[in-house]
Structure formats: structure tokens, C-alpha cells
Design brief:
- The protein is α/β, with parallel strands linked by helices.
- The chain has two domains: 122 residues, Rossmann fold (3-Layer(aba) Sandwich); 65 residues, DNA polymerase, domain 1, CATH 1.10.150.
- It is 50% helix and 11% strand.
- The chain contains eleven helices and five strands; from the N terminus they run βααααααβαβααβαβα.
- A five-stranded parallel sheet has the order 3-2-1-4-5, sandwiched between helices.
- Strand 2, helix 7 and strand 3 form a beta-alpha-beta unit.
- Helix 4 crosses helix 5.
- The two termini are 17 Å apart.
Amino acid sequence: MKIRNKPVIMIDFGGVYFSHGRSMAIRKIAKKFGMPEKNVREVMSGRLWKKHHEGKMSSEEYWKAVSRRLNAPEEKWKWMENAWHSSYKPQAGMKSLVRKLRKKYRVVVLSGNVKEKVRFLEKRYGIGKEFHGHHYSFDYGVSKPDARLFKKAAKKMSLRPADCIVVDDMENFLEGVRKCGAKTILFKNAQQLEKELENLGVKA
């Protein structure tokens, strides 16, 4: 049966459906190579990170560049990639909440992400079957906190921004989304999300 109820609920991955795996991965990499977490975070961020998430740089290119900038052995790039991917764990209560919501509402992914990590998460957790749709930064060539990611996804689904509730852990992204006309929820945990959805008239 096709779900037509509105609003459509858009849920982020890292920091919402899954734990904030990037922070965990930074700690793993810093420990592995005996360097400050601050250095790893700086190298993994910025222009390289943006290009990778926008689908303009392959995973191999990204991690080899990170390795070089960290003065780590370049052949360890695959280890770094796996450390990043495997750091994402399902958040307590989110799987069951999404399953309840999707019986009445369209629930889709809206995530700044890369193809290789999505494939990893699909293989490990079967994420494809848990949502009615998936919208990733690499599909649109734009990533968070740029609100154009939301606008492009809404347009592809033929939705008005007012028909959407966007759930994310990045306030600077949600600020731009609100300016587009959508409702937003800054995620803390599954219980808080369910309560805030109810406040917006959405009952699981």
C-alpha cells in the first residue's frame, strides 16, 4: 500500500539513525598512528571532506590524501576507511521508531554521505528496506550544511518544503532548512524525537 500521509519525515544517518561515527573513527585513527585527534579531525575535514561527500572524489582518493597529509603509510588507507565505516552503530530506539512511523508516513533518508559507506551500511544493517527512499549528498553534488541538499531532495519527490519534517543533529543545516519553509527537529535521542514529532501532530 502506498503511503500518502503528510508530512514526509526526512532522517539523517550519522548522529541520528546511527551514532556519530566520524568522531569515533577520528579517535581510532589518532590512536592507531599515535597523533593528536585534533590533527586527524583537521585533515579529514574541509575541502577534502566536502569533495568526497559531494561525489567528486572517490573513497580511495580521499583516504590516500588523508594518509599523505597525516604522514601515515599510504597503504593503510583501506584500514582507515574501514575504521570510519565500522564506527557507525544504530542509535538506541531508532530502528523501532522508524518502523512504526513508516506504517503511516513516508520516511526517507536525507544524509551527507559517500557511496562506499552506504554500501557498507547496507550490507551490515540492510538499510535499504528500512526507509521509503534515500537521498544522499553524492546524488546531488551538494552536502551539509548547504540547505540546497534538502531543496533538491524535496523537489525530486515533488514535495513542498512545508510538507516535510527534517530530523538532523546539525543546527546550522536545520537553520537553512527552516528558511526554506520546512519544519525541523534537532535530534537528541529516539524518545525526544518521538515526543517532538507528536508535538507536530505526527504519531507513530
